[in-house]
Amino acid sequence: MNILMMLFTAAMICWSGNGDKNTWKLDGSHSSMRFSVKHMGIANFNGSFERFDLTMKTVGEDFSSMEVEFSADVASINTANKMRDEHLLSEDFFDATKYPKLTFKSKSVKKKGKNTFLVSGDFTMHGITKTVELTVIHNATVKIKEEAKEILLAGLKVSGSVKRSDFGISPDFTDLANEVYLDADLEIFMEPK
Questions:
Q1: What is the DSSP string of 74-97?
Q2: pLDDT value, residue 19
Q3: Where are the beta strands (DSSP E) in the chain?
Q4: H-type helices in 69-170, by residue range?
Q5: In whole angstroms, how far apart are CA 166 and each of 89, 93, 124, 129, 189?
Q6: Which of 21, 98, 119, 137 meets the CB 3.0–4.6 Å disulfide criterion with 157?
Q7: Residue range 121-127: average pLDDT?
Q8: What pTM did the predictor assign?
Q9: Which is it for strands 149-163 and 101-111: parallel, antiparallel or unpaired?
């Protein structure tokens, strides 16, 4: 009976340890989020969001277990042209006063190769939520020392696309292609426990 209790206790300890989730936060100073869309069918028009945040939870350092929550401030859009940015923020496009955030919350993760994952989740923009699939590549994880503590730092490459019409953003505006490509380079660090 004692042996059974010891085995049960050991199994519970291992299970608890494996299920213990780590929290990763964004290093915003070393991260960027961009978008591109074809203009007049001839060239890509590019922009970025300057203010965004991400929180990720993983079991240990296993990114196939990732749970992601992401948000961006629509008002931080930057296309290197003030007049165009103001137009994009208006009711003609994002209507940023009414819909100030775009968000993504993961629902499932599929591993597609050694360091590549397909992350499916709820993408909300312009007050409409649709399921979107993003490709996440885990570039590498390194240990750094900060204030005499070792911290894990990971690099991720994220890409995907959405259709403007799915989110009610100027579906009749034909100068821009309907499909918008998303691209982000992210550095995240594991919060010490």
A1: GGGEE-S-HHHHHHHHSTTTT-TT
A2: 59
A3: 21-26, 32-39, 43-49, 52-59, 62-73, 77-78, 101-111, 116-125, 128-146, 149-163, 179-190
A4: 82-89
A5: 18, 13, 11, 9, 33
A6: 137
A7: 97
A8: 0.85
A9: unpaired
Tokens of 46: 């590019």
Element spanning 192, H or E: none
180 Cβ neighbours under 8 A, 6+ residues apart: 35, 36, 37, 161, 162, 163, 164
Q: Which residue has the tokens 């629509």?
A: 74
Nearest Cα residue to 102 out of 122, 82, 81, 78: 122
Domains of the chain, CATH where assigned: 21-190 (2.40.128.110)
Q: Is the pLDDT of residue 52 over 70?
A: yes
Region label for 49, one of left (φ > 0), alpha (ψ between -120 and 50) or beta (otherwise): beta
Q: Other C-beta atoms within 10 Å of 167: how many?
A: 21
DSSP-based three-state secondary structure for 170:
coil
